[in-house]
Amino acid sequence: MTNQYGNAYLESIVPIVNEIRQLKKEKNAVVLSHYYMSPLLQISEDQGGISDFVGDSLGLSLEAKNVKADNIVFCGVTFMAETAYILNPKKNVYIPDMDAGCSLASSITAADVEKLRLEYPGIPVIAYINTYAETKAVCDICCTSRNAVKIASSFDSDKIIFIPDKFMGKNLSNSFKSALNKDFIIWNGRCEVHEQFLENIDSLMTTYPAAEVLLHWEVPDTTVDMALAKGHGIVGSTADLIKHVQDTDIKQFILASECDLGATMKGMFKDKQFITPCITCNYMKKINLQNTLDTLRAIGTEDEYKYMISLDPSIMEKAAIPINKMIEMS
Question: What is the mean pLDDT of the chain?
Fold first, then answer.
């Protein structure tokens, strides 16, 4: 286990980690963790931690489809756990805190999509993975920040309805306008984490002029345009940003994404420096070692309903169509 917390703290959590690892074996469970989880939840089994797989939204979706265990404990947010359940309807999927929501997913409903379809008949609807199952169920296909361009390009229509992230939609439209040759009809949703980078990237670029800027698609388009015009860097998905850091000889980066992605990158690339305002997702931080342990303890008991993902079967069936279309194109 990595030692960035101090020996006393690590010693205090060893019993929790050990019990989680033991219960995973006893209850035939796996733990999937998102890159925005606290670093302790991202440490893999072979490094002394609890996670069986760590990834971004697409990586977790693909891994969920391949899980062999009977029980999946999802250390992420609820729309991600829903996706895992839709892809694995015969398995049990749990989330350690049902209140681990998403401001972006909450910005649109299935009724909103139906209104858009009436307003723009015949135009395909692409739903970012950061949506709830009921919303996915009335869309044509899902995407993640990693495959959005490929999926948008697959439609013959010269117009695309993109939901729910207005900044991601604008960034995709601006960055690939000539390649896509499509007009984006964009919903007015925002990630409460990434929109906060509107104010601080310019000053960081002034302070660290040699640094490359790593910008997530969900960062406001005006910030992305300014950063790319004034300096060197890229805009992309979490996986894109990680791959870029891996492939370049640059040693210093300004990271415009969730704070704990910075911690993850520091662990991955120990010879490189990452400067990031510590803007965290409060929903992601609802998940911790203790409630992950509580979840595993509850599996198979009368308390498991507190953590178990449950969806209407008809919603699951409809939502599986756009999700599986996305996976087929990944």
Answer: 91
CA angle 326/329/330 to nearest 5° reads 85
Average pLDDT estimate for 83-100: 95
Phi, psi of 167 (to 5 degrees): -70, -45
The pTM is what?
Answer: 0.90
pLDDT class of 1 with cuts at 50, 70, 90: very low
- Indicate if 121 and 176 belong to the same structural domain: yes
User: What is each CA distance from 211 to 3, 186, 268, in whole angstroms?
Assistant: 27, 32, 18
Residues 14 and 79 in one domain: yes
For 140-185, write each residue's pLDDT tens digit: 999 987 888 889 888 989 899 999 999 999 998 887 776 777 889 9
Residues 126 and 65 in one domain: no
Report the interhelical angle of 289-298 vs 7-26 (nearest 10°): 20
CATH number for position 91: 3.40.50.10800
- CB burial readout 216-231, b (16+ within 10 A) else e: bbbbbbebbebbbeeb
Q: Are residues 57 and 114 in the same domain?
A: no
For residue 134, with 0-12 CB atoms within 10 Å meaning exposed, 13-18 middle and 19 or more buried, which class applies? Answer: middle
Q: What is the pLDDT of residue 172?
A: 86
Residues 16 and 90 in one domain: yes
3-state secondary structure of 115: helix
